[in-house]
Amino acid sequence: GRAHRHRRARRDRGARLSPADDLLREPLGDFVARVAAPAPAPAAGSCAAVVAALAAALGAMAARASRIEGAERRCRALMDRVSPLAQADAEAYSEVLRASAAERGVALGRASEVPLAVAEAARATSELGTELSAAGDPKLRGEAIAAAILGEAAARVAAVLVEMNLASDPGDARIRRAREHAEAAQHAARRAAEGR
Q1: What mean pLDDT is predicted for residues 80-98?
Q2: Residues 117-138, mean pLDDT to the nearest whole number
Q3: Distance (Å, rounded) from C-alpha 128 to C-alpha 191?
């Protein structure tokens, strides 16, 4: 979730996520309900992280029967890396909402690090899904392709959030890096879907 989206109806400064919260330990239905609730977070950034984690999980499923050495381990490492970012993004967004006008730019800059990390992990997941779609078990090719496509979706959402957070400084290198991750993920997903 990001402050730049100006969610007037959802900007409840009293709604906070405590560090003890863990979004991914909730039942899926509860997480979905929290996204739809009036509180400002979790929102798009947390959802992107969850999608990236699911993509990596599908990659791990496909990797178990693949001929790519270390593929399952790499997928699980990506899953472990991106899963905590769902909670981290929700907390970062809450901090932006609590920031004073003078602190807002700094808070947005800090908050941009989370979707940037999501974009990086999602790109890696998409690229690995593409490898698995070509060299894995044909029975699990659908899961590998899904990993690539979901990774792309997460990377693109995360890149948009980075760009929106840093809109006041369009020359920030993090915008370029996020776009590169999204473009690479898009290319990988296309290759997977087209069987290349």
Answers
A1: 94
A2: 95
A3: 12
Cβ neighbours, 10 Å, residue 39: 19
Q: Which residue in the block uniquely carries the two structure tokens 């991750």?
A: 181
Query: Treating both helix axes as pointing N-terminal to C-terminal, what angle do 44-63 and 104-135 enclose, rounded to 10 degrees?
Result: 20
pLDDT (tens digit per residue) in 50-68: 999 999 999 999 999 888 8
Say if residues 126 and 147 touch (Cβ distance below 8 Å).
Answer: yes
Are the C-beta atoms of 181 and 122 separated by less than 8 Å?
Answer: yes
Lowest mean pLDDT among 22-26, 129-133, 171-175: 22-26
Give the DSSP letter string of 15-58.
----TT--GGGS-HHHHHHHHHSSSS-S-HHHHHHHHHHHHHHH
**Torsion angle of the four alpha carbons 137, 186, 126, 136, in this order, in degrees rounded to the nearest 10:** 10
Q: How far apart are CA 190 and CA 122, in angstroms?
A: 15
- Alpha-helical runs (H) found in 103-169: 104-135, 141-165
Give the orientation angle of helix 141-165 with respect to helix 44-63, to 10 degrees. 150
Q: How far apart, in whole angstroms, are the C-alpha atoms of residue 103 and residue 100?
A: 5
Share the mean pLDDT of the chain. Answer: 88
pLDDT digits (tens, 9 = 90+) for 159-173: 999 999 999 999 999
